[in-house]
Specification:
By secondary structure, this protein is mostly helical. The chain has three domains: 2-90, no CATH class; 101-201, Receptor-associated Protein; 205-274. It has helices at 2-8, 10-16, 23-29, 36-64, 68-90, 92-120, 125-131, 137-151, 156-166, 170-185, 189-244, 250-274. Helix 4 runs antiparallel to helix 5 and helix 10 (170-185) runs antiparallel to helix 11. The radius of gyration is 27 Å and the shape is flat. The mean pLDDT is 80.
């Protein structure tokens, strides 16, 4: 039944493809084995399953308690939640691609450094690649695919070129192009690897310095909103209530506390997203 509904949604999926023109590329880099139209029809189906029940639940709840505002909210939420759910599902491959890129760039310099040591010791590049197929996370997975392609009969140059095409990381692609050009031209691979590793390490150091500088204004904002703001705000409320005679109830304090918890979570996620993926 689900398969039939997704087939019925294919024409709508083909039209909505314009909203996510990079979807085919994102699906490939996120390693999702689906055609764009097939994936979008699945996304539309899932968005209906999220948006329609949520909107109808709010609508019927408002009807049962005769609350017109809640009914209007339910009627508005039905299309809005469906659209928001669709956009979330449609952009999921891009999110996965970004996560994979960060993980790959985190382990890449260490995998390449290991390869450099092997090559400098006189071990062939293919054998050096085999040594880094484990222990380096996402980078190891990519080298596993390269080794499998070579074992399947492809040349190393062709295997590296295909790896460059299917990979989302600009840093990885630049490194592999440099390595591939070294193989094609017959120059010393160890020199190429040494240059690549040095370049990536320098870039990561710059990212750490940049991140350190960015933290200063974030810390100031945090102190203003999370420490100074609530303290002065509550003090101000107490002073105003003593003059006006208005009562500051537990609901107000609970609202302030809830707002602070939401802000803390948001702030932690923001800092985490800004932090460069670099191994210690």
């Amino acid at each position: 039944m689900e398969l039939n509904s997704e087939k019925l949604l294919l024409p709508l999926a083909q039209k909505s493809h314009k909203a996510v023109p990079q979807l085919e590329r994102d699906l490939m880099t996120a390693r999702i084995d689906q055609e764009p139209e097939e994936y979008l029809s699945d996304a539309i189906s899932k968005s209906f399953k999220v948006g329609i029940p949520s909107g109808l639940s709010l609508l019927f709840a408002g009807y049962n308690i005769s609350n017109q505002t809640m009914m209007l909210m339910g009627a508005a939420a039905l299309p809005l939640l469906t659209i928001m759910a669709f956009l979330t599902f449609a952009n999921y491959p891009k999110i996965q691609t970004n996560k994979r890129t960060r993980k790959l760039e985190k382990d890449l310099p260490y995998a390449l450094r290991d390869m450099l040591i092997e090559v400098k010791s006189g071990i062939p590049l293919y054998d050096a690649m085999q040594t880094v197929t484990e222990g380096y996370g996402e980078a190891s997975e990519e080298f596993q695919r390269i080794v499998r392609d070579i074992d399947g009969g492809k040349s190393m140059v062709k295997a590296l070129e295909e790896s460059i095409v299917r990979n989302p990381s600009e840093e990885y692609r630049r490194a592999m192009w440099q390595l591939n050009n070294s193989i094609k031209s017959g120059t010393d691979v160890a020199l190429a690897l040494d240059s690549i590793v040095d370049s990536i390490i320098k870039k990561q150091k710059l990212q750490i310095k940049k991140y350190g500088k960015e933290l200063n204004p974030y810390i100031l904002i945090y102190l203003l909103i999370a420490v100074i703001g609530p303290s002065l705000g509550i003090t101000g409320l107490i002073v105003i209530s003593s003059f006006t005679g208005t009562k500051v109830g537990t609901t107000t304090y609970a609202g302030i506390l809830g707002g602070m918890i939401v802000f803390q979570l948001f702030f932690l996620n923001l800092i985490k997203s800004k932090r460069p993926e670099v191994k210690a």
